[in-house]
Amino acid sequence: MIKGRCLCGAVTVKVASQPAGWVGACHCRMCQRWSGALFMCFPAPEADVTVDGPVRIYASSDFAERAFCATCGSHLWMRDKNTPGTNYELMPGLFDDAAGWSLRSEVYADQAMKAVDLRGDHPCATAAEYEAKHPHVEGGLS
Q1: Pairing of strands 22-26, 39-44
Q2: For residue range 15-30, what is the model confidence (pLDDT) as tens digits?
């Protein structure tokens, strides 16, 4: 199990299963607006995640919800709100254990802000490549 918390400590997040051990990045405009530059996350099965504290949920699109601490505003997760059992995409900064995890992949790499250069040999997908594999998000990331 790993445990994480928001900036103020009002929200705690526990993941009962072995974590992924890697982080993914998204450079779409919605994630840029939400995070200030790029969204980084790791997957955790919904059944293995326990959340306590004052969480606010925002439906950021027809298919996704984003959560944040109602007290301090720390971003907590993003997930598909229409598919039961969907993974949480948790913010790695909430978890001390995630500090040593490497970057595994990027999506919307062609839309990355110039100030965010994540060089490496990890897979990168353009917006078109990502949306071709995930048609439910097409056009919903503005």
Answers
A1: antiparallel
A2: 999 888 999 999 999 9
Specify the DSSP element, H or E, that contains 34.
helix 29-35
57 within 8 A of 67, measured Cβ to Cβ: yes
Instruction: Tokens for 85, please give them.
Output: 């059992």
d(CA 61, CA 37): 19
Q: Which of 141, 120, 1 is nearest to 60 (CA)?
A: 141
Q: Are 5 and 11 in contact (CB under 8 A)?
A: yes
The number of helices, as runs of H, and strands, as runs of E, in the chain is 2, 11
Taking alpha carbons only, the member of 86, 5, 76 closest to residue 44 is 86
